[in-house]
Amino acid sequence: MNNDELTCQELVELISDYLESALAPTERVRFEQHLTTCAGCRAYLEQMRRMIRTLGAITEKEISEDTLEQLLQTFRDWKHEKGGEHGR
Ligand SMILES: [Zn+2]
User: Fold this and answer.
1) Is this structure's pTM higher than 0.85?
2) Ligand 1 center from residue 39 Cα (angstroms)
3) Which residues, including other chains, have CB under 8 Å from residue 31's CB and lie 6 or more apart?
């Protein structure tokens, strides 16, 4: 077994540690070495980064926007129903 080179499987297992900068320096070097030779893992890492960024951006803005929209919708429906009742 070649202990120097990371396999794709190993890279995937280390990816969250890598993104949290929790890898040991030697592991980090091996990680990045694999990336230079493996386009598939580069793409995978890029995808993970983007997802994390999106999730981080979502938490406050989008959820409150969604919730607001839902509240407005509920309010509209509620008003409509009440108005209908009153109209009779
Ligand atoms: Zn790979």
Assistant:
1) no
2) 7
3) 6, 11, 14, 18, 23
